[in-house]
Amino acid sequence: MKIRWLCRTLLMLISVGVLGSFSDSVAQGSEKITTSLKCATRYQEPENLYDFKKRVKEYQDNGSWDKTNACVVQEAFKALKKYESMPGKKAIVSDIDDTALNNRPIIFKQDFGYVRDIYRDWEILGQSIAIEPVRALCNYAFTHGFAVFFITGRREDQRTTTENNLRRAGYLGWTHVYFKPMDFEGSSAAEFKRKWRQEIVDQGYTIVVNIGDQKSDLEGEPQALSNFKLSNPAYLIP
């Protein structure tokens, strides 16, 4: 009886077009999804932020980030050694954050967000460890006749904590650390970093190597004889 009743019910639904409407709506929904994908492709929808952050974390966790930077520094070592016999005053320049010192713990803790007060508290703690290949490069330079200069986006009022952190992280020494001027309000870090490189050159140095994790660490005149950019997919500083 139940089977016979079910069959009669299905026939009735078909006769009044309910099932047809349901199947049509499913098809229309599929078409709408297809249309959405077509539009996203046409206008080049960017990668989903969740997926991108996941890939950056995997890049860190599987060691690829460190391996990429080690490869870059290996090339910087080759350049440095090539200039060892060059006469005159020779210098290398290094950025600090995510070049000389590793800030990835706070980057991942903040889920790639940036709140200046939180980052400043992190910097004041002075607990960042060295990015080992860069430390090896700077210490080699320091013990082989090169002047070592750091140019950082941190402000001048962070000098003491920053220099203490560099020492704690194993950097043997340097000639000077240049900070972002307290009154700087420019649109790009390249503006003040270029200015400090000019000051180094004006002291009679030839900058043979410049290394940083941002393009703005390397842009503008004067240029080093060799520039090296480390990997940093976590953020961009213009």
What does this structure look like?
The chain folds into two domains: about 1-40; about 65-230, HAD superfamily/HAD-like (Rossmann fold). With about 240 residues, the protein is of the alpha/beta class. The strands form two sheets. It has a five-stranded parallel sheet, sandwiched between helices. It has a two-stranded antiparallel ribbon with strand order 2-3. It has nine helices and seven strands, in the order H-H-H-H-E-E-H-H-E-H-E-H-E-H-E-E. Helix 4 runs parallel beside helix 7. The longest helix has 25 residues, at about 20-40. It starts with a helix and ends in a 9-residue tail after the last strand. Helix 8 (about 160-170) links the parallel strand 4 and strand 5.
- Determine the CATH superfamily of the largest domain: HAD superfamily/HAD-like
Query: Tally of extended strands?
Result: 7
Rg, nearest Å: 28 Å
Oligomeric category: single chain
Number of domains: 2
The CATH topology assignment of the largest domain is Rossmann fold
Mean pLDDT across residues:
89
Shape: globular
CATH hierarchy class name of the largest domain: Alpha Beta
In terms of DSSP E residues, the strand content is: 15-25%
Spatial order of the strands forming the largest sheet: 5-4-1-6-7
Q: What fraction, in percent, of the residue positions are helical?
A: 40-55%
Q: Concise description?
A:
Helix 8 (159-168) links the parallel strand 4 and strand 5 (176-180).
What is the strand and helix layout of this fold?
Layout: H1 2-16, H2 18-42, H3 49-61, H4 64-82, E1 89-94, E2 101-102, H5 104-109, H6 116-125, E3 129-130, H7 132-143, E4 147-155, H8 159-168, E5 176-180, H9 189-202, E6 205-212, E7 226-229
